[in-house]
């Protein structure tokens, strides 16, 4: 079986929306508003400065993806690349899709001289944490706070 990574296109929007909805339900028990979600996904394609999506395909079938967004750091004079909206369909998990997606993000980030790669992970999601650590990531010393508006 051949695994490949490619930039997402507008034709991937339905899959990206479905994966985001599935991930939110699976990891946080949240049901996302489909219309808001679709506008959010489209917003990345409409304003590429926000970020980009990558899609993993196995034998030409999309099996997962992720989004990268950017945060400027004046301390580092560079962008933090935030990996978000990571999802791999259940039947393709533990088969290298995330590893390949991550490798492509890392390759692109190094080429762009990004300051670092970052991501959020649910505090109870030990399996995901172990996956990220195997890619060379480590827990940082920041706690996250939020005010939903």
UniProtKB/TrEMBL annotation:
Lineage start:
Bacteria, Pseudomonadati, Pseudomonadota, Gammaproteobacteria, Lysobacterales
Q: Which organism is it from?
A: Rhodanobacter hydrolyticus
Q: What is the protein name given in its UniProt record?
A: GNAT family N-acetyltransferase
Q: Which UniProt keywords apply?
A: Acyltransferase, Transferase
Kindly give the PROSITE patterns that the UniProt entry links to this protein: GNAT (PS51186)
Q: Which SUPFAM superfamilies match?
A: Acyl-CoA N-acyltransferases (Nat) (SSF55729)
**Which segments constitute the N-acetyltransferase domain?**
3-149
User: What domain of life does the UniProt record list for this protein's source?
Assistant: Bacteria
